[in-house]
Design a protein that fits this description.
The structure is a homodimer of 305-residue chains. With 305 residues, chain A is an alpha/beta fold. Chain A has helices at 43-49, 73-82, 95-107, 164-169, 174-181, 196-199, 221-224, 242-247, 253-262, 281-288, and strands at residues 5-11, 25-30, 33-39, 59-61, 89-93, 116-120, 127-131, 135-141, 149-155, 186-187, 193-194, 208-212, 230-234, 267-271, 294-296, 302-304. In chain A, the strands form three sheets. In chain A, strands 6-5-4-3-2-1-16 form a seven-stranded mixed β-sheet. A seven-stranded mixed β-sheet of chain A has the order 7-8-9-12-13-14-15, with helices on one face. Chain A has a two-stranded antiparallel sheet with strand order 10-11.
């Protein structure tokens, strides 16, 4: 794999699976972290089908407790157990999921061989739920029929890369270099201030990915989603079912595009399509009329940033 | 469909699914009753794939609470709800499954649109768990790591068919005919006893199907399984893993065949293959050496009796 962001769609359907669409699931490799976002029924089989590594998953994010977003989780966790998984798996979810999983494992007399670490989501307010040296993940509430969270995955600024010719020109010491990598300017022997930008390569823009699983149209999201590199926003219906979307707390393709436009994101990915639409072409057509850089979530498709 | 027995294999794998094998699930159409036996993850998608009718299922039998036998059930029951299922669905399972399902539905705020009727299995002794005018279903305990039941589906004797020429010869009245259909002999005008066999067509042999999901080799089963038309018996391993089979309370292909032979069944079907075997040919080869009429459970294959 090259690139810092590979997102593979495991499922693009809402509620009921269809003959060619699976319920929600996305496999994200983000700056070498292996992440699963939602886990509808059949997710582990999809991961195998697309030659991704089940046992490499370190973080699992479950947006809410409608079955099409987590019914594949008990099976996936059991398979990790049977495959002798040893490293910790971190699960970010509502606290009720722990009760459900513990009951399932109790009655099957299963004691997981690996450590499953729960991190409970706050359904009321945004918060940082994971952070290491390279990435930061936040959750934020979505407006749906039951408690539901979206997630934002952000690349963190890394150390700057110092230009070789500058090291020679200014005879930079290892100590100087560390300071410059961290963004400091440099004072040369004659007391001249050399700006950091002059000494370092321009950093790559930082990647970010936002995931809005199930939500009614909510303009307030635009602020949280501002300027992300890629936004996944559900589009369960097209505008012909706008009222139904509102009643069921879902969005239409146009509404997803309006959010993308308002939030000034770079690209939009739509999914969670109702089984009533046999052809998903209508979704992308509707969304593109508002936001040109729209793409369709399709099983097995990988998006690279 | 013609025939009184159509059994379609939805999954033939044990524990973890493989790229081409699903966990346990069988769709049985038995004298026009639509029955699902076990429901591993992905079962609803398999039912769609093989063009079977999800909404026609009336009875669901779950042998035990290892995930590869029921992790597809919450999704299947939810889909029936979303598909506006109206008729009752009868679920035969251990009582703990009710707790699991009720918790899942509670947290997704789901109130099923149809009536789900629970019938709890007795893990200790055989019992009749369903009976109507055409079929009878019994459960019986299997020896596995956790409580587990097998099932026997039996066709009930139907009314006999009276030969047309006998109706004319003996001038049988509608009243006589009803008695003869029920197996009675006939006393003619001259006081001669005419045996029922002389008046009626020989009935078709009664069909029966036994399902032994997960079990260690257990000779005592032969008595319960005596003479069934078709026996499904798990064969998780081949004899190269005989010790492992014993430790994990599973059977080998040879052991399944020994049970079939001892029980004098007509045909044997084996399944629940461990993912360590890429090629299932070895199972049938091993079993056939003991019991010739052995068949392999394979996804999508339908057995007609």
């Amino acid at each position: 794999m090259s690139g810092n962001f590979h997102l593979t769609i495991l499922g693009s359907s809402s509620a009921t699976p269809t003959s060619n669409r699976n319920p929600s699931g996305q496999y994200l490799n983000f700056i070498d972290r292996n992440i699963l976002i939602d886990c509808g029924e059949g997710t582990q089989s999809q991961i195998r089908r697309y030659k991704l590594k089940l046992t490499k998953i370190e973080h699992i994010f479950i947006s809410h407790l409608h079955g099409d977003h987590y019914f594949g989780l008990p099976g996936l966790l059991s398979s990790l157990h049977l495959l002798n998984q040893t490293h910790e798996v971190h699960l970010y979810c509502f606290k009720e999921l722990k009760e459900i999983l513990e009951q399932i494992f109790k009655y099957s007399d299963t004691y997981l061989r690996y450590r499953l670490v729960y991190h409970f989501l706050d359904p009321k307010r945004p918060e940082v739920i994971f952070e290491d040296d390279k990435i930061q993940v936040s959750s934020f509430p979505l407006k749906h029929r039951i408690a539901c969270c979206g997630f934002i995955f952000r690349e963190k600024p890394s150390l700057l890369s110092v230009k070789k010719d500058m090291i020679e020109l200014y005879k930079l010491s290892p100590h100087d270099i560390v300071k410059i990598k961290n963004g400091e300017d440099f004072l040369d022997e004659e007391g001249n201030l050399v700006k950091n930008q002059h000494l370092t390569h321009a950093p790559n823009p930082l990647l970010s990915y936002a995931y809005c699983s199930d939500t009614v149209y909510d303009e307030l999201l635009a602020e949280i989603l501002y300027n992300v590199s890629l936004l996944y926003h559900e589009a369960t219906f097209c505008n012909d079912q706008k009222e139904r979307a509102e009643v069921t707390f879902h969005s239409t393709a146009e509404q997803a595009a309006l959010i993308a436009k308002k939030a000034q994101v770079e690209q939009l990915l739509i999914g969670h399509f109702s089984s009533r639409y046999k052809d998903t072409g209508v979704f992308v057509q509707e969304a593109k009329a508002v936001f040109e850089k729209t793409f369709l979530a399709e099983e097995g498709k990988t998006f690279v940033l």
